[in-house]
Design goal:
It is globular, with a radius of gyration of 17 Å. It has one domain: Alpha-Beta Complex (Spore Coat Polysaccharide Biosynthesis Protein SpsA, Chain A), CATH 3.90.550.10. The protein is an alpha/beta fold. The protein contains 8 helices and 9 strands.
């Protein structure tokens, strides 16, 4: 198979119920595009039928593949695995619940042409839409967390946690081998490494469906903040070896 234009990486943990509709939507939309693509589902040690469902779908979708991990490692670990297993010129990871639909990817393409090497979906910049709105306490926690992230590592980026991010093949192959965080703080870490390496990052508004069945617990917010502190420390100590690049 020739190098695809786009690789879609979908990390999945116990997504047997939500994943089928996501796969149908992604494949249906991408079949209508002029560019080539692959879909890579990375199963994070699910205890349900997630991997088996993807294998069944792969018989119907030529461009669909599954990476099946027998043990749970964390979203950051499997996104990293998927990014490095992918073959596409552009490598996008998105949520298994389809919170941000693949149709939003086409809005990224003009930014690639402007020279941006990383384009991230955002729920907090002008033009973004969210349905239904998040509960008040989640908005407050998110806003406070974002200010903390900006202060420590990523000034100017208003939403580092939206699960819809695209990296060029060069950036993916430079950034993800260096990443250390296996769980929720991986978004911040990958963007911080890309920024330190001098890659151009664009934040773009997206339409985001707020699924009340989300697997993200309130404790994940605190974990992200602690991992942001670790990223700041690792950057200071040159633990990623970036000053040698």
């Amino acid at each position: 198979m020739a190098k695809p234009f786009l690789s879609v990486i979908i990390p999945a943990y116990n997504e047997a119920k939500r994943l089928p509709l996501t796969l149908i939507d992604v494949d249906r939309h991408l079949q209508e595009q002029e560019y080539s693509y692959e879909i890579l589902v990375v199963n994070d040690g699910s205890t349900d039928a997630t991997a088996e469902i993807v294998r069944r779908f792969s018989a119907l979708m030529d461009n669909l593949k599954v990476v099946d991990n027998p043990e749970n490692h964390g979203k950051g670990w499997v996104v990293r695995q998927g990014m490095l297993a992918a073959k596409g010129t552009w490598r996008l990871f998105m949520d298994a619940d389809n919170s941000t639909a693949i149709v939003e990817f086409n809005k990224m393409i003009p930014y690639f042409k402007q020279g941006y090497e990383v384009v991230i979906g955002s729920r907090d910049v002008k033009g973004a839409k969210m349905s239904p709105p998040q509960p008040f306490y989640k908005r407050i926690m998110g806003d406070m967390g974002n200010l903390f992230i900006q202060a420590l590592v990523l000034p100017g980026l208003w939403d580092t946690q939206c699960g819809f991010k695209c990296f060029s093949d060069e950036v993916a192959e430079k950034v993800f081998p260096l990443a250390k965080i296996d769980r929720w703080g991986f978004d911040v870490e990958s963007l911080a490494i890309a920024k330190e390496l001098g890659y151009k990052i664009k934040e773009m508004p997206v339409f985001w469906v707020n699924d009340i069945r989300s697997h993200v617990s309130p404790g994940a917010y605190l974990q992200v903040l602690w991992e942001v502190v670790k990223v700041r420390w690792w950057l200071f100590r040159n633990a990623y070896g970036l000053k040698n690049n």
